[in-house]
Structure formats: structure tokens, C-alpha cells
């Protein structure tokens, strides 16, 4: 049976991140992808040039259209934009209860543009984190969620992962790309386990959409795997390939996308 995946996220007109990255990833990993669009961005590889949010009513209408007709095996959330969107998405997901919920805690684009109102971080932590099967913060996002300083070491990453579990997440994938240095270790923290996924840093500046692509891959692969350890291992292997192939795409003049 084909796996059905849904992304609740923002559109990237440049095709490298957001909804577009998610749908390409869903297809590449053999699933049937669907989308609830929370915001439009006018965006290319050089940056985010404008954002238009979708009304809460129309976000709810998209959720209802999908869930009332189509089986959903796994959902991911990406760019949510503001507290009103978080509230309606939390309410609709509580109503439909999809079996797997991946929360990519998107806050700021690589170019510096805010993709989440800073005043909405509390709403994200209080309303969505407790219903997530896994959350995938990078180090600045974990620090914002915990209102603490950014982790500078793997020991601090693990500690913050445990604090996010205490805050209600069922699993946390702490992404270590911001640590700097030669390697980008990610740590998977669950209530019973802490597993490191080491990775060498790939020499490319074309990393636009890596976070979106990883969380979409987790969403597509989790229904096909026994647990999060197997899922993260497979998703990371696929993402490394996508980053390695990024140079070949020659998309745009800025930070190009990974190859989905
Ligand atoms: N645009 C949208 C709609 C996104 O959802 C995201 C990331 O989640 C980005 C842009 C940021 O992409 P990046 O920071 O990889 O350039």
C-alpha cells in the first residue's frame, strides 16, 4: 500500500525549500505527497523577498479537505509563520490525530529572514511540541525553544535534547550543523536512549532547504521503518546524497538547493 504523506508548511517559489522541497522528497522516497499551505514566500536562492500568510480559516479548510477524504499516514510541519497559524494547525491535528507528526521547528531562513514571528515561539512549544512524534531543531532553534544559550558542544546538545523531551516532545533530533568544525553530528534523544549520527561536513555552499528536506524524509521513511533510529539513519543517508549532488543543479546565483 502506498504511504500517504502530508506537509503543512510554506511555499518557496524558488523550489528549493518549503512545500516544494517536501513534495519532491515525498515523491523521491516513494510516497504520495499532499500539502496544506500556510504561507507564500516570494523567494529565490538569494533570499526571501516577501511573505504572504494564509488565513487560519483557509488553513483549516485545506486540512479538512485532505483529512476528510484521504488517509494520512504521516504529517510534517514546516514554516508556520505566526501564533494564529499554530493555533489552527494544533486544533486540526488534535481533531484528526494522524499517527506520525514530525515538527520541523522552522524559525529563520539561512538568509536571515524570519519565518516564524519570534512572539510565537512559546505557542510552538506549548501547543505543538507536546503532540509531535519527533521535533528537529537546529541549535539556534533549540536555544529559542528553551530560552537559553545556544549549545557549543555535543554534551550541551544532548542536555538540551533531554530538556525538550521534558517539555513534552516524544523524540528530538538535535541537528549539529551549527557547531562548526569538520563534522556535523546529529543527536537523536528519546526518553530511553541517546544516539549519535556522525557526519562529515560536505564542502558546498548549496544547502538551501536541507532542514526541510531532512524532516520531509523522516516523514516519508518513518512509516517504512521500525523506529526513529532506523528512520534517521536512512533519512540522513539520503540527505547526504542530496547535498552531495547539489553542485550539479546550477540553480540560481545565491545559495542553491539540494538535489531532491
Ligand atoms: N522558505 C521556506 C518556505 C521554508 O520552509 C524554509 C525552511 O524551513 C526556508 C525557506 C529556509 O530554507 P533555508 O534556511 O534552508 O535556506
TrEMBL record:
Pathway: Cofactor biosynthesis; thiamine diphosphate biosynthesis. The keyword Chloroplast does not apply. Residues 12-259 form the Pyridoxamine kinase/Phosphomethylpyrimidine kinase domain. SUPFAM superfamilies: Ribokinase-like. InterPro entries: HMP/HMP-P_kinase_dom, PM/HMP-P_kinase-1, Ribokinase-like. The keyword Kinase applies. GO terms for biological process: thiamine biosynthetic process; thiamine diphosphate biosynthetic process. GO terms for molecular function: ATP binding; hydroxymethylpyrimidine kinase activity; phosphomethylpyrimidine kinase activity. Its EC number is 2.7.1.49. Keywords: ATP-binding, Kinase, Nucleotide-binding, Transferase. GO terms for cellular component: cytosol. This is hydroxymethylpyrimidine kinase. The lineage of its organism: Bacteria, Pseudomonadati, Pseudomonadota, Betaproteobacteria, Neisseriales. The gene is thiD.
